[in-house]
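Consider the tokenized backbone below.
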């Protein structure tokens, strides 16, 4: 049987009343899902919606006479024809659409308060698109406006001044949401208007305008009584989120403290990362503006970290800014409020750059902080310095960026042998990460390859443990470099284990190169007969784990069962 949908769609789109009438008279369902409305919807729509979208008055009348309903509950876009009409701007709302709107409202106004999947009524959609004529028509037929703030928020965010003024004249209440949306859109004229109708004294709008980068809105709010140094729930001031240096200077000139702390103890200097800014240049300029205003580079947050940690961590973020930027950010950071507006400049800049990773400015910001005298030796609650942070979770960062950052800190006097409260050195971390270029650099710089943590483990233990979970041979290469440079293969930790005990233990998920690591240790003289504090030999542990490839390697080296 021939599919009637294509022929019916063509007839509807072309306004062929006779053809549509004949097809319906021949048994074609007036509610048949025909095809998506090109340019308007993503799902198939019934005939009435297609006729509405194309502005065919006579067809709409015919379909209504044939029993068509202006309601499509399964639509992903427009549950009613009124929602569809609301998506037309005032300029596109011709006399034909006005006639269609009145026909539908006179025939079927029962769905005038129906909500879309986004929770919007036809009035909300109309406000979003600034169609004042259709809004008045909806109100004429009973659409509810009293106490409904959503249309005002939609109109304010879209910059539709006539609609905003009309809604205010109708007594729609104002609260923080319309002003938030107007600030986010940078519509200072609407912000100015809303303030005359009783602006809520909440400080969110100022933060929103500062974060998006609307300097004129920021200046207007400050000039009209927004409380200086007002904070949001996490105690951040607008200066913490300022998108540009000009906004930062406006706030500083208005009395904002460059050393104000948020609930985590971080000052604005912690948040000058370029991922929150419209461009790398903005990040550098804001940092410079804060430093010029007297920002203290040695402030430590509640965890004992300085802003240096933040900018080192930012390097990790740049790996997310690729063709999967949004998905990656949501996966790693969740749907936090900042994703909607603070990360937006970085994502937009990424897209403008043809989805290529942005040039990485953190090193330049780090250089500014170092030039301003930041203390590289400050420790966090774990006793770690910024040097530890460079190596932490290296797998998420470009190696070259790590090495450059490491060299920069060394140039400014950082201690490459520094250990935290557990005795963890940077070499331990580099070995655990399989970062063999950094391992080589540290060894060449004279770092002790046999430095011990408080549990007695050397970097060799870290490299061996990493071989169990590796996805490449990087950890085995790291192991080989350590062995080639004098690491003690017989070193014993406090529990009596050697690196070979660590290698045969399956306490971690199996990797691809554990057998190779075992063979390499045996080749370099590891003692297969060595016993741990409980008297167990390496073979005892391997036999318990049941890994035949490792057991065979041990037997081949002369170990006994």
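A designed sequence for it:
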């Amino acid at each position: 049987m021939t599919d009637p949908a294509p022929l019916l769609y063509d007839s509807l789109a072309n306004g062929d009343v006779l053809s549509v009438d004949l097809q319906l008279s021949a048994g074609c369902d007036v509610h048949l899902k025909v095809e998506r409305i090109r340019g308007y919807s993503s799902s198939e729509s019934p005939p009435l919606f297609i006729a509405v979208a194309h502005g065919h008055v006579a067809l709409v009348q015919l379909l209504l006479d044939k029993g068509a309903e202006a309601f499509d509950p399964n639509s992903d876009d427009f549950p009613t024809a009124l929602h569809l009409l609301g998506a037309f701007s005032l300029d596109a709302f011709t006399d034909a659409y006005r006639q269609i709107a009145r026909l539908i409202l006179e025939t079927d106004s029962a769905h005038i308060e129906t909500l879309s999947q986004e929770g919007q009524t036809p009035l909300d959609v109309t406000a979003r698109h600034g169609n004042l004529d259709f809004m008045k028509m909806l109100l004429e037929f009973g659409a509810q406006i009293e106490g409904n703030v959503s249309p005002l928020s939609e109109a304010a965010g879209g910059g539709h001044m006539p609609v905003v003024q009309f809604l205010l004249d109708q007594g729609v209440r104002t609260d923080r949401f319309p002003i938030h949306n107007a600030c986010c859109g940078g519509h200072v004229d609407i912000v100015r208007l809303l303030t005359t109708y009783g602006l809520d004294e909440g400080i969110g709008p100022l933060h929103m305008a500062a974060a998006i980068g609307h300097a004129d809105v920021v200046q207007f709010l400050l000039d009209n009584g927004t409380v200086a140094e007002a904070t949001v729930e996490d105690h951040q001031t607008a200066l913490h989120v300022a998108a540009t240096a000009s906004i930062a200077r406006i706030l500083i000139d208005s009395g904002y403290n460059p050393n104000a702390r948020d609930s985590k103890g971080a000052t604005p200097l912690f948040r000058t990362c370029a991922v929150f800014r419209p461009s790398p240049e903005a990040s550098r300029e804001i940092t410079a503006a804060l430093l010029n205003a007297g920002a203290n580079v040695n402030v430590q947050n509640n965890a004992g970290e300085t802003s240096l940690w933040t900018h080192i961590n930012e390097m990790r973020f740049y790996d997310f800014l690729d063709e999967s930027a949004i998905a990656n950010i949501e996966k790693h950071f969740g749907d936090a409020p900042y994703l909607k507006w603070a990360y937006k400049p970085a994502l937009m800049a990424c897209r403008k750059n043809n989805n290529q990773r942005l040039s990485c400015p953190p090193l330049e910001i780090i250089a500014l902080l170092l030039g301003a005298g930041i203390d590289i030796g400050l420790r966090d609650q774990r006793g770690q310095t910024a040097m530890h942070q460079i190596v932490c979770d290296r797998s998420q960062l470009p190696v070259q960026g790590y090495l450059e950052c490491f060299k920069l800190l060394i140039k400014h006097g950082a201690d490459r042998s520094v250990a935290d409260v557990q005795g963890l050195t940077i070499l331990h971390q580099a070995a655990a990460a399989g970062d063999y270029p950094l391992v080589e650099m540290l060894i060449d710089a004279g770092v002790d390859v046999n430095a011990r943590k408080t549990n007695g483990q050397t970097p060799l233990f870290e490299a061996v443990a990493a071989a169990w979970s590796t996805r490449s041979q990087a950890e085995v290469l790291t192991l080989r470099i350590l062995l080639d440079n004098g690491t003690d293969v017989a070193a014993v930790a406090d529990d009596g284990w050697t690196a070979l005990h660590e290698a045969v233990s399956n306490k971690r998920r199996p990797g691809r190169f554990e057998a190779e690591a075992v063979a390499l240790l045996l080749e370099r003289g590891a003692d297969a007969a060595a016993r741990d504090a409980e008297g167990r030999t390496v073979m005892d542990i391997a036999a318990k784990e049941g890994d035949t490839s490792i057991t065979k390697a041990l037997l081949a080296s002369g170990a006994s069962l």
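Residues 448-561 form a domain with the Serine Threonine Protein Phosphatase 5, Tetratricopeptide repeat fold (CATH 1.25.40.20).
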